[in-house]
Structures are given as C-alpha cells and as structure tokens.
Amino acid sequence: MNDHSAPRVPASGHVGRRTFLAATGAAAAWAVTAGGRAHAAPAPAAAGFAVPVDTTPHTRTWMAWPDSSAIWGRQLAGVQADIALIAKTVARYEPVTLCANPASVAKARSACGPAVTVIGSIPVDDCWMRDTGPVFRTDGAGGLDAVGLNFNGWGNKQTHAKDALVAQRIAASLGVPFTAADLVGEGGAVETDGNGTLMATRSSLINANRNPGLKQAQIEAALCDAFGADQVIWFNGVTGRDITDDHVDATSRFLAAGSGLVQMPLATDTDAWSKDARQQYQILSKAKDADGDPIRVAQIQGPDYGRIRSSDPDFVAAYANYYVCNGAVISAQFGDARADAAARSSLQRLFPGRVVEQLDIDSLGAGGGGIHCVTQQQPRP
C-alpha cells in the first residue's frame, strides 16, 4: 500500500473520503442536535431482535444515487457509472431498490436498467447507503425492525441534511418499526457476527466528532443495545486520516459466528493503514467471541499499490469491502492481476456455493470507498 501520510486534494477539486479536511468548514452548517444525535430517542434492541450476519438471506439491497457535483466534481460521472454497475450486478441475484433525488430518477433508471427499482421518494445527498441507511434487525420469528445510527456526515465533514433522514424514511416506506440508537455512527463502522459479537475501531466511534463526552463503556453499551449484541472487539484504528476515521469494513469482516477475515498489506508496506491492518489481525486472532470461543481468522492479501490501475495515493483498494448477496459475493478488482486472482480464489473458498463477481469500481475507490460502502442489505425476516 502506498504511504498515505500526505493526503492531497485531486485536481478536480473533489475531496475524497481519505482527503477531507479542506471541506470541513463547508460542512459545519449541517450540525446535529444537542449531544451529537440527529434524532433523540434512544433504541435498546427490542426483545429478541438482533442484526444478523451478512450471509443470511436478503429480501433486497438498498442503494443510493449520487448527483452532487459539489461533492464529487469531475468524478461524478465515473462514480455514477460504478453505482450503476454494482446495482445491475447485485440485481442479478436479488432485488435492488435505489433511492434518487426526484430530478435524477430518469437518469438513474436509464443507467441502471429495468432490473433495478429506482424511487424518488427518499432524497439523498450521496451514495454511501451502508452509512446512511437503516440497520435492519430480525427476531428469528418473522419480525423485522430497523435502527438508525444518527448519521452526522462522519462528524460533520460533509453535507448530510437529506442523508440524515434516509434511515427513518426507508423504514417508514417499509412500514417497519424504527428507533434511533443512543450513539452516532455509521453502518460501515460496525461489523457483527450475528451471534453477539461486534467489531469496531475506536478512531471512528470513540471520537468527539460523533460522540462527545461518551466513554468507551457507554458507546459499547449503546452499540450492543442497537445491534442486539453482547460484546465489542475494539481496534485502535486511524484517526483523522480519512473522512470515516477508519471504518472497520475496509479491513476486517465477520464471515460467521466465530469466524473473521482481515485484509493484509504487503510485508514491505509501512504506512498507517498497513500498521492498522496488522494490529487488527493480531487483536482478532487473540479474541474470543460472545460464546467464549476463539475466533478463527482468515487472511485476504491486499494488492500491490504499485501494480493497480489507480495512481491516486488516497485510493482505497479493499478486497475486504465485498458485499454478500443471495448466491453471490460482489467484490472489486484493481488491476494487479496476481492479487485480483488470489482475492477471487480466497473469496470463493470462504464462500463456497456463491458466485464471486469482481468489478472495476476505480472511480468509487478514488472517492475512498467500495462495494460494501454503497450497499445495505434488508434481511429476510
């Protein structure tokens, strides 16, 4: 991985998710309510409700259509093409509902094709549905509800007046109960094994830009209440170097109860992100799950940043940011042919019986995210 110690603003003027500091002043007008929450009601998980692991069957996938040149600059067309590609690919395996601003519905429908349902009733600021959308919970008895994580633009770093309302509006459109968690965060900041164990980085959630005044124990309790979990495995993460403050889903994922995955850097990589990945692997390898059992940890090898297509030093090349849908795993490929092939083989081994799709989503990667970042699953009750 390239050294990310010197983030830059691309010539287009677009501020990527790993190059955000210049934009924080413009975002300051979108402040959240007192205590850092977009809505006030705390949400302990209803009895028996919990967020299932990603591999459970889905009813549909939710996505969002970006249309803001103020956010994306000259990269907008490329990002839209990537969103359309992801939506069309997922739609081969399960229904996809994509939220678009009313003025962009026709363009989104044209780009995504008839297999993707595009709606204009839930306006959006950007495309990061993992962070803005509702986190769905099931009770194992046919029940479904949703919790919102009070999205505040990753700590008021980006315009988010519409995105702050996406979670509750999706829940309302489905007619499912909705409550707001007693913390501020994003879906990409938390991984669950569906069996009581979560993973998260301190840099993202134990951060004054999300949860001022809250201690780790308070945030952990709020997370467990919201997700229906019992414990959190914490990684230190990387603070202030990307807009998310180091979301866990770009590096570490749960495969199932008692089983995880970490994307590893090359042995020669020494930047902050590579050190963070190694620390995550070490911590997860020594951790136990909520049942007290050791967690089995697989590795997926990251690419050689000198061999990928992008030369952007802030590019996010995360194979680990894959999306599991019904019958498939949708992942990225970055142009390092050997690493791309090895990643495909690893994912095929880890998800037997599912098709592995690898997509070129370089515009999205240059914006600091990946396929998991722009999708949100609605599990089957």
From TrEMBL:
Keyword rRNA-binding assigned: no
Keywords: Hydrolase
Keyword Transmembrane annotated: no
UniProt-listed InterPro entries: Peptidyl-Arg-deiminase_porph, TAT_signal
Protein name: Porphyromonas-type peptidyl-arginine deiminase
Organism: Streptomyces xanthochromogenes
